[in-house]
Amino acid sequence: MDRTTTVTSVMRIPITILLILVPGILSQTAPSTPTISSPTVNTIKEGPVNFTCETVGGSPTPTVEWYKNNVLVDQTSFTDSSSGVSVHKNVYSTNIQFSDKNTAFRCEVENSATTTPLTVSKTFTDIYVPPSDTVLQGSSSGTANVSQSWTCFTNRSYPVPSFSWKLDSNSILSGISTAISQNTDTTYFTMSILTYTPVSADNGKVLMCEIEHSQTLSSSIQETLTLQIAGSGMYWHQYIISVPTMTIQQSSYSATSGSQVTLQCTASGATSFTWLFNGMTVANDASLPKGGNSYRSIIDYLRSDTVHLIIDIEHQTCSPSSVFFLSLCVSLPVAPTVSISQSAYNVSSGTSVTLVVNVTASPAITSITWQRMFTNSTRQNITVDGINYGGSLVSSPSLVIYNVDSNDAGSYICRSTNSLGTSESSIIDLTVRGSIPSVAINSSAYDIIQGGRAILQASVSASAGWEITTVYWKRTMANGAVITLDVDGDKYEGGSISSPSLVVNNVDSGDEGNYVCYAVNSIGISESGTITLSVIGSKYPSYVSDNKYVYTSSCLLLS
Q1: What does each C-alpha distance from 36 to 44, 64, 77 come to in angstroms?
Q2: What is the CATH classification number for the domain harbouring 468?
Q3: Residues 345, 429: one domain?
Q4: Which is the most buried residue in 95, 209, 226, 352, by most CB within 10 A?
């Protein structure tokens, strides 16, 4: 009995040790479904934003990447273990623009235990634009009992802000009108017009235009001027029979740069005329520039009291053009503008990368050219062949580099041309990191006799400095389940860095299925093609008849 007990104890010890020494590949686990911890709102103000994506756990460490409209924009991630749990994060910093409304920002998380990336997305249903370039125009000087006008406007905002007027602390509720027009990016140009008749008591008071925008401003914007009101205006009534009646022929004009436009108004009973542009008086001097434009004012009393303002268009503008608030918008032809979404890319060898640029121009661009820049300041044009490079089109100016390798590392620049000239982007630097391992197989199918030994041959390699850290095999079962194989030295052998081929001992029908070899390094994971293992017959033939034989588990019988 003692000997039997001793033998039983001895047999149990190595079994326990084998369970402890099971390779770490069995502990591979998928990370949690990612979450976006910031921003959490669905509406946001135009400006800088940090997108934070988080996932918990996972072995090996998962990648966490941000995509904007399916374009990779940030693949830098880090692990925060301060809470005692490994939280893997990627914080993508960018400037949200009004045009990003309904744009999809997607976070992807994956490791070798995930069959497809785990994703979470963020879109903004509205992006608010705070009022910009607010201006209060009009004279601070006036005469008591003589009406005058002031304008208060903001060039760009979304949605439309609200305007109010005050004289000292008293609200002005009458004589106010509003003009709203839409900019080319669908934000709004908004103007409030106050017509008010000051009295002597208003001298020294502060006229204030207050702009409120609850979506973006915690406090209002206040534009002010101090009134200087002279006299009572009583003597004017001895001479002025009636105030002139003013009309305009049309309220808006469109023109192109280099052309000339005439703004026309009619006044009955007027003794003088004055045109204002953005609150400045337009002088009767063809050579005098005002606000970047030249003006010629022609006054003709003999022709129905009609006054013309002739403007030689030189620069782009979209603003009120006279005291009657005509809207003059000029489309200015310009050379292209080439902007980049990021100045540096860091990618793995063997992957593809898109160097993103945005081009705006009027008139439209006619060509896109990408160049490599070298340390000796020389440049080389890139030939887009659809094999090594893609994109670089007028309709799609970004450059796609396929199957990146170390030779692609360097600096790139985009050049865009239209009829007015050529412009260049800022320099984009591309860094190429090593590559994921290479996994090759000798055959995609093996037919093995039952009870025999199958050697599924595979070889792995990686570039210097990016050595392979793990090799493992997966098998797809008949029911579709995928399992990671436990290479225990008994049923399975090999499946290691030094001996990646998988040996399956004592093959039976339960071993049939599809096998895949995986190799891991610090860049990522690669996999072999699928190997199909089929089991036929049994190990020994039982008889021979007409040059045919069958197998049994005993011996070979000859007749």
Answers
A1: 15, 12, 14
A2: 2.60.40.10
A3: yes
A4: 209
